[in-house]
Amino acid sequence: MAHYSDLFPPAQMSSLSGHASDDAKSVLAMHALAAYLVTHRLQVGIWVDTTGGFKPELFKDIIKFYVRQSNNNNNNNNNDDDEQVAVNQVSDRVSYFRVFDEIGLLETVRDVQEIYSESSSPQPHSSSSIHEPSAGFIVLDSVGAVFSKAMSNDQSLGHSQMAGFELSLSHVVRKHNIRCLQITILVNASLTDHMRSRFDYLTLKPALGPTFAYYMDRIMIMSPTVKVENNITGIDYTIEIIADRFNGQEGKRFNFKNL
After folding, report:
1. What is the pLDDT of residues 36-61, one digit of tens each?
2. Which of 28-37, 120-129, 219-228, 249-258 has the highest mean pLDDT?
3. How far is residue 82's CA from residue 91's CA, in Å, rounded to a whole number?
4. How far is it, in rounded angstroms, from Cα 182 to Cα 169?
5. Which of 24, 139, 140, 150 lies most in the core, judged by the most C-beta atoms within 10 Å?
6. CA angle 169, 173, 175 (to 5 degrees)
7. pLDDT tens per residue, range 121-179
8. Strand pairing of 136-141 and 94-98?
9. Three-state secondary structure call for residue 245
10. β-strand partners of 141
11. What domains are defined for the chain?
12. What does the alpha-carbon distance between residue 257 and residue 245 come to, in Å, rounded to a whole number?
């Protein structure tokens, strides 16, 4: 895996679930989006925030990390001003949406369709007449915040609204070859649940039930592990793929350190 963005395949719907009180899942999403945009300099990203938890300064710090890494890999000796310009250019390619309910999410799908339709139009100053397929990266943080509330009011209606949203979003994602990450929380699972970790000690599963799982192509869960190094206690995270419709990666695990 070259970048965290590689966890989320293009033209597929991916989900990442973690503990409700832990923001590491959002931080991982920032790493994935920043790494993708630094590497793909003609593409755009979208961050849909349903909780008000997006931290723009943290995101810029993460972008700076990948800009600096790219400069080092390419032996570019840019000064601080050049580096900051590069960080701002990456940040400017991200559209931010603050959404409060399921209606707002459905409206956002239309906005996403317009953004990627425009980005896929041939550029007048392009040196090549061959236009590459559209691509980009969407992060939805968090889908559970919206639809858990809707389901608590009316379970059947909430599931129906979620199904309609996921179907509309998946159409855009597949049409424009977009990487899509949806963040939700973990809930308790029993040993008989199918959609759960392969490790018996980790009795957790993604929230939102089988309807949500049906629309996801890759489902991942994120669990913390306490580490002690040089008498300093920290937390590392294990990302486990528990379902993978197209790539057969079930059971694979990856590490993430929330710096």
Report:
1. 999 999 999 999 999 999 999 999 99
2. 28-37
3. 14
4. 11
5. 140
6. 115
7. 544 443 333 344 558 999 999 998 888 888 888 888 888 999 999 999 999 999 999 99
8. unpaired
9. coil
10. 49, 183
11. 4-118+134-221 (3.40.50.300)
12. 27
